[in-house]
Amino acid sequence: MTYHNAHAARIEDGIVREIIVIPYCEDDDAEITTYCNNIGLTGTWIDTSYTGSRRGKYAALGDHYDPETDTFITPGEPHGAPRHRRGPRVGERTDPP
Question: Rounded to two decimals, what is the model's pTM?
Answer without folding.
Answer: 0.75
